[in-house]
């Protein structure tokens, strides 16, 4: 659309192919030549249509009316957002701080050393399932949910085979040596995504390890959903528990904390994280749109096909922490204070100790000397 913003009498549409200007009175002929193009031609069950007001027939909403309204609202973000949603039928990218430059995050990387950082009180894990791999992040949590990205692994293989899940077992059974003189830490809880790939395999895997606090989860971007539900849903096919996460709320919380450089909620990154990982962490942005007459906001990839596995893994690891708080009344700050009073380790030990499957204890593998109300750690 083209118009003179200083002396608007008529707005015209400039053809992208030939450069000619089309007038509003030519719409009948233009629309007659148009046709719908299916972006998902193989989806034969549901037909949906996306069309902006620019296509309104002559005599309805004119290009001049649309241009005039744009001039009225262009300097007011809230009104411009409504114009973008209703007139262009486009989603609005929220610019209120959600976009974060991955390069700036890389500048905050730290050297953790050979042991878990002093502030780490417990470990949780999040697992994203893809067609040819599992991606896993192990996260350390401290006072006021300050966090450290302890480990990030990509396990390649076929998720329909037991071999790949055995590799995940080995990861979840690892013991990490703390910089404080306390017993080695294990992963206290884990969430595995069952919402997209190999759902039955994920649910069965988690069900067999429920006593080790390994949860099958599914993300829900609906408005007002809690990060961790009060109760599990039942998979309609297997009748086994699946926890439905409020991923929008989780992402709102986590992405806001990325701005913190210290203290409560701050993220800490090791030197090993590369630019690809930080890109995946920041590849989603908030978009707002009208749905059934109501303005809603949701997290969506910045571009179609953008990879977001790193962010998904962190959401799942955070959900595992919320599960401990809600289901087991776990007190993170209490545990962090106990660890803070311990002496700094002086005896050298390997930072990560592998535990063989046959050595797996009959009690919870995460037990150590520190206790928190409601759960053995």
Overview of the molecule:
There is one protein chain. The protein has helices spanning 27-33, 63-73, 77-86, 102-106, 162-172, 199-208, 247-257, 275-281, 309-328, 332-340; strands spanning 13-14, 21-22, 92-93, 122-130, 133-141, 147-156, 175-176, 187-193, 214-220, 233-234, 241-246, 267-268, 284-291, 294-301, 352-353, 371-372, 375-376. It is of the alpha/beta class and 377 residues long. The protein has two domains: 13-90, no CATH class; 102-376, Nucleotidyltransferase, domain 5 (2-Layer Sandwich). A hairpin with a 6-residue loop joins strand 10 (233-234) and strand 11. It starts with 12 loop residues before the first strand and ends with a strand.
Secondary structure topology:
Layout: E1 13-14, E2 21-22, H1 27-33, H2 63-73, H3 77-86, E3 92-93, H4 102-106, E4 122-130, E5 133-141, E6 147-156, H5 162-172, E7 175-176, E8 187-193, H6 199-208, E9 214-220, E10 233-234, E11 241-246, H7 247-257, E12 267-268, H8 275-281, E13 284-291, E14 294-301, H9 309-328, H10 332-340, E15 352-353, E16 371-372, E17 375-376
Parallel strand pairs: 4-8, 6-12, 8-9, 9-11
Antiparallel strand pairs: 1-2, 3-13, 4-5, 5-6, 7-15, 10-11, 13-14, 16-17
């Amino acid at each position: 659309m083209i118009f003179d913003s200083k002396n608007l009498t008529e707005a015209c549409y400039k053809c992208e192919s030939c450069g000619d200007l089309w007038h509003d009175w030519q719409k009948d002929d233009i629309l007659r030549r148009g046709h719908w193009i299916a972006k998902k031609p193989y989806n034969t069950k549901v037909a949906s249509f996306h069309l902006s007001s620019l296509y309104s027939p002559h005599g309805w909403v004119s290009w001049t009316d649309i241009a005039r309204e744009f001039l009225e609202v262009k300097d007011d973000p809230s009104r411009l957002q409504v114009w973008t949603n209703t007139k262009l039928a486009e989603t609005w990218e929220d610019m209120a701080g959600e976009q974060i430059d991955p390069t700036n995050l890389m500048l905050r990387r730290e050297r953790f050393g050979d042991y878990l950082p002093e502030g780490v009180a417990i470990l949780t894990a999040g697992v994203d399932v893809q067609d040819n791999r599992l991606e896993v992040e192990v996260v350390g949590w401290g006072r006021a949910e300050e966090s450290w990205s302890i480990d990030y692994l990509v396990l390649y293989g076929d998720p329909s085979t037991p071999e790949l899940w055995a590799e995940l077992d080995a990861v979840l059974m690892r013991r990490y040596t703390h910089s404080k003189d306390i017993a080695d830490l294990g992963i206290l809880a884990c969430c595995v995504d069952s919402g997209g790939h190999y759902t039955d395999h994920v649910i069965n895997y988690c069900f067999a390890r429920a006593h080790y606090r390994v949860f099958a989860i599914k993300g829900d971007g609906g408005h007002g959903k809690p990060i961790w539900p009060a109760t599990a849903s039942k998979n309609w096919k297997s009748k086994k528990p699946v926890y439905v996460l409020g991923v929008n709320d989780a992402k709102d919380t986590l992405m806001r904390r990325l701005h913190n450089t210290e203290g409560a909620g701050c993220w800490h990154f090791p030197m090993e994280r590369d630019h690809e990982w930080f890109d995946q962490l920041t590849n989603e942005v908030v978009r707002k749109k009208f749905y059934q007459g109501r303005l809603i906001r949701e997290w969506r990839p910045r571009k179609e096909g953008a990879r977001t596995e790193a962010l998904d893994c962190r959401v799942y690891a955070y959900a595992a922490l919320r599960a401990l708080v809600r289901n087991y009344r776990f007190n993170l700050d209490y545990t962090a204070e106990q660890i803070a009073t311990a002496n700094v380790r002086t005896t050298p030990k390997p930072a990560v100790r592998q535990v063989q499957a046959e050595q797996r204890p009959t009690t919870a593998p995460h037990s150590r000397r520190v206790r928190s109300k409601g759960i053995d750690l």
